[in-house]
Each structure stands twice: as C-alpha cells, then as structure tokens.
Amino acid sequence: MLKVHKKDSLGKADYGWLKPRYHFSFSSYYEPSKLGLGPLRVLNDDLIYPGKGFEPHPHKDMEIVTYIINGEITHKDSMGNGRTLSRGSMQYMSAGTGVTHSEFNNGSELLRVIQIWIQPTKKNLTPNYGDIVFTKEDRHNKQLHLISSIENDGKIKIYQDVNVFVSEADKGVIQEFSIGDYDYIYYVQLEGETLINLNKLEEGDALTTSESLMIDPLTDSHFLIVQLRK
To answer: Is residue 79 assigned to a domain?
Structure first.
C-alpha cells in the first residue's frame, strides 16, 4: 500500500492570522476517510503571522508534538513552562489529566510549524512538557530520531509506540528508511522535492505507505517521517 497526498488535496483554512493545512480531519475540515492513522490523530502544517497565536486553551489525554520549520514559537503552559524555540527545535507536551497552554509568534517573521497529536496508551497520565534545541548538523544527511516510546531511543519519549524522524538532505544524497515491524509510515515533504519509491513529492505533499522508503532528494530537502502501528 502506498498513497501520495498532494498538498492541494489536504484540508485548509484561512483565519487571517493563521493559515493551516490539515493532513487529517480537524476543526472545520472533516473528511471521513481521514480521521487519523493508527494512534496518529492530527498532523497540521500551520503558518502563523507575526504578533499572533493561539490564546490559552485546554488539552486532555493527548501527546502533542510541535516541530518548528521557520520562525520562532513561544510556548507557555499551566505547568509553569515558558520557552521560545526556533527552526529545527522540537517541543512535546503530554496533556494527560489536563493542561492549558498558549503558542505565539512573538517574532518578526512568518512562523511555520508542524503540530502532531498522538493518542496515548493510557488516559489520565500526569501532564508533562519537554523540548530540545537541535542544530542542522544533527539532521544533515541523516535521520534524527526525535520522538519514540519510553522503551525506544528517541530524543523525547512519549506514551505511545510511535517514532518521529526528521532530516535535511542534500540533493542527490539518497537515504533508506525501513518500516521494520511497524504497520505504517506517514512521510511529509517539509521543503524541497524528493522521489519516494519513484513518486515525486513537492513541498507540502505527504505519503502513506506500508513499505520501506527509498528517499532520493531532487533538490536540497527537508522531510519528516512518522512510523507507527495500527
């Protein structure tokens, strides 16, 4: 099984200050065939304009991962955490029994982030927050293991058996990615153009597959891979 999702086929909205692209049903976008993939419930590609953002709002029983592509995001939450992060950094919040947070673009540039919601293995967990600042060298022509279960070796641990990887690859530097004993891969082309198993993906496109990947960058490329079970 392999299916390409062109960016024009994804859900979209325009709130003036926020222009999201929805990979799965979310908010005003509802598509019965796109209610998630295994425990992966949400993957939003958000553009947030300077001086704007999400006012304090609650979450419960969800693992929330945010990857910054461009600009700066400022996070504050009811646990007392407050951080400003930029390109290539990752933040994680386990909402558990309940947490309130805000996310703002207090910088002067357009902010672009990928926000991923993953359903945890248990409900009513103790809320938690973490973030890590990465350099380009950490992901240059290799797959940086950002997120994993507690038992695996991702940089940030979550309460679900899901792996998230990211890479910035030079044109022509081919990579392979094994599906291993997992059921699905959800691949997102963040920047540039790449051939994935001979399928051309451009910036904003995505792909669902149950096969291992042959990744051939047609330009300098930036991509994200989610590896998960049913």
So the answer is: yes
Q: How far apart are CA 123 and CA 62, in angstroms?
A: 8
- Provide the CATH number for the domain around residue 147: 2.60.120.10
Distance CA 225, CA 164 (A): 6
Q: Is 29 strand, coil or helix?
A: strand
Q: What DSSP letter does each residue of 161-227 carry, written as one string?
A: S-EEEEEEE-TT--EEE--TT-SEEEEEEEES-EEETTEEE-TT-EEEESS-EEEEESSSEEEEEEE
**Tens digits of residue pLDDT in 15-47:** 999 999 999 999 999 999 999 999 999 999 999
| pLDDT tens figures, 41-84 | 999 999 999 999 999 999 999 999 999 999 999 999 999 999 99
Spell out the residues 6+ positions from residue 214 whose beta carbon is closer than 8 angstroms to its own.
174, 176, 195, 196, 197, 198
Instruction: Work out how many domains the chain is built from and give that number.
Output: 1
State the Cα torsion 194-199-203-208 to the nearest 10°: -110
- The rounded radius of gyration (Å) of the Cα atoms in the chain is 17
Query: Do the domain assignments include residue 2?
Result: no
**Inter-CA distances, 5 with 68, 194, 204, Å:** 21, 14, 9
What is the β-pairing status of strands 221-228 and 184-191?
Answer: antiparallel
